[in-house]
Specification:
mainly beta; 8-stranded antiparallel sheet
Length: about 200
């Protein structure tokens, strides 16, 4: 049984976040994938309201910054996502949007180029909302990353045009690979089912 259900089948954990999966890379990898276990256990996405992904990564791409893209249910087509994206580096702010995107939920972790420190990693927290509803799936994320000339923060909201429940999450390095030491954690957010 999941840790929040006791031997008698009673829900005991008042905390709504449940750790589902974690990966720390020992070798570079282009993609990290999680799929629902569909077995009623901790890894079964169908029991959660929301899913949260925490990423700490760098890529081996040659640019100052590269991509980290989150895809839902292996949806990577040219018109699969709509997004609004806001960035700021302490000097300038930029905003842009696209309703015909194949970038998924994206942000810009450091690559190997640019003027940042060699060991600079970026960090991001994704929050995917109402993942088992019949609505189009949507999410938001905040990231600390690297821009064209400076470190920057990013706020990104996105929606993908599918009403299907979320059963797969892919984190993709956009043509490069996440370096060793990059970490990825997946949490499920339960509806509040016990008295606090």
């Amino acid at each position: 049984d999941p840790s929040y259900i006791d031997a008698d089948g009673v829900l005991t954990d008042p905390e709504p976040w449940v750790g589902i999966a974690h990966a720390t890379l020992s070798l570079p990898a282009a993609t990290v994938t999680w799929t629902s276990t569909n077995d009623g256990q901790t890894g079964d996405f169908s029991q959660y309201m929301d899913l949260v992904v925490v990423v700490y990564c760098k890529t081996d791409g040659a640019g100052a910054y590269e991509y980290c893209k989150l895809y839902v249910n292996n949806r990577t087509g040219a018109n699969d996502y709509f997004y609004q994206h806001l960035t700021g580096d302490g000097t300038t702010v930029s905003a842009y949007a696209d309703d015909t995107s194949n970038l998924g939920g994206f942000w810009y972790p450091p690559g190997t180029g640019g003027s940042h420190e060699a060991n600079a990693f970026g960090a991001c927290v994704y929050h995917m909302l109402d993942v088992n509803s019949g609505k189009y799936k949507s999410g938001t994320h905040m990231a600390g990353s690297y821009g064209a000339t400076n470190d920057q923060v990013e706020h990104h909201t996105w929606m993908t045009y599918t009403q299907a429940p979320v059963t797969e999450i892919d984190l993709n390095a956009g043509g490069s690979s996440f370096v060793a030491g990059s970490t990825f954690s997946l949490f499920g957010v339960l509806p509040r089912m016990v008295t606090a």
